[in-house]
């Protein structure tokens, strides 16, 4: 599946037009995670659909969802902008940034410098770069470009082998461990354990995907996660603010 997504992305990049820069505030994704409302910090994802689950939310209003996440004291947002596989759109970030004050991660498959510029211009505060999708040197060049433009980067890996290749090039400030294997879609909530001992102490570690319960949250925190990135389990119900509270075991407080 990742191969198919990347093929499509390469096609899209050829005809990509970079919009004018939107006039919205720049926010530090890194600081919001570092000085979070909760432990572990929460990156709440605005996600309509996915290749592994199909449609997750029929009645989908991205700005309303983002506002509900803010009301639930999420630390940051992740917004899917890929149209072909996730039914996202880059305009979701533009609209959300006008109405919500949280830092926004652009969740997409970034493989080209034009997409880095596009991300800054639509108002993204951070971008995702996937270790399994890029050569280490290429990823580092895109990473440097993003920081030059004032954005943070969530560098994501699934395996220790890919992390080791990246770390021979540089050490990311924020490292996501995807619990989902993007070739099989299988999730393993303990994936972070295979990696956490190889990561320097001052790198912020994020556990991503397949987090559904308070037990899951406690587990990944015990295994080294400073933050979690959650989509489906927050998106499924009617009330996203209540879903955050339930995820952190705060329903009866
Ligand atoms: O979610 C998918 O099916 C997927 C398939 C192929 C590439 C990426 C995919 N997801 C992107 C993500 O990393 C997740 O949206 C994110 O970690 C949240 O996961 P979840 O809480 O399980 O929705």
Automatic annotation (TrEMBL):
InterPro entries: Aldolase_TIM, Indole-3-glycerol_P_synth, Indole-3-glycerol_P_synth_dom, Indole-3-GlycerolPSynthase_CS, RibuloseP-bd_barrel
Keyword tags: Amino-acid biosynthesis, Aromatic amino acid biosynthesis, Decarboxylase, Lyase, Tryptophan biosynthesis
One Gene Ontology term of the molecular function aspect: indole-3-glycerol-phosphate synthase activity
Reactions accelerated catalytically: 1-(2-carboxyphenylamino)-1-deoxy-D-ribulose 5-phosphate + H(+) = (1S,2R)-1-C-(indol-3-yl)glycerol 3-phosphate + CO2 + H2O
Pathway per the UniProt entry: Amino-acid biosynthesis; L-tryptophan biosynthesis; L-tryptophan from chorismate: step 4/5
Boundaries of every Indole-3-glycerol phosphate synthase domain copy: 9-247
Enzyme class per UniProt: lyase
GO biological process annotation, one example: L-tryptophan biosynthetic process
EC identifiers of the protein: 4.1.1.48
SUPFAM superfamilies the UniProt entry points to: Ribulose-phoshate binding barrel
Classification via HAMAP family: IGPS_B
Stated family: Belongs to the TrpC family.
Protein's name in the database: Indole-3-glycerol phosphate synthase
Species this protein is from: Metabacillus idriensis
Name of the gene this protein is made from: trpC
């Amino acid at each position: 599946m990742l191969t198919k997504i990347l093929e499509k992305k390469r096609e899209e990049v050829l005809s990509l037009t970079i919009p004018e820069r939107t006039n919205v505030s720049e926010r530090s994704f890194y600081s919001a995670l570092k000085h979070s409302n909760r432990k572990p910090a929460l990156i709440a994802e605005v996600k309509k659909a996915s290749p592994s689950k199909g449609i997750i939310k029929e009645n989908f209003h991205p700005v309303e969802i983002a506002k509900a996440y803010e009301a639930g004291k999420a630390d940051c947002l992740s917004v899917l902008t890929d149209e072909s596989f996730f039914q996202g759109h880059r305009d979701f970030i533009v609209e959300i940034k006008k109405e919500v004050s949280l830092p926004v991660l652009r969740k997409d498959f970034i493989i080209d410098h034009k997409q880095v510029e596009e991300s800054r211009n639509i108002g993204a505060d951070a971008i995702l770069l996937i270790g399994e999708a890029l050569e280490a040197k290429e990823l580092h060049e895109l990473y440097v470009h993003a920081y030059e433009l004032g954005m943070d980067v969530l560098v994501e890996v699934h395996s220790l082998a890919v992390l080791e290749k990246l770390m021979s090039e540089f050490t990311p400030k924020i490292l996501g461990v995807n619990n989902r294997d993007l070739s099989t879609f299988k999730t393993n909530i303990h994936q972070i354990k295979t990696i956490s001992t190889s990561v320097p102490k001052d790198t912020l570690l994020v556990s991503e995907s397949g987090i559904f319960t308070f037990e899951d949250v406690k587990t990944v925190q015990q295994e080294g996660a400073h933050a979690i990135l959650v989509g489906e389990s927050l998106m499924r119900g009617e009330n996203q603010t209540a879903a955050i509270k339930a995820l952190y075991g705060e329903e009866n407080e």
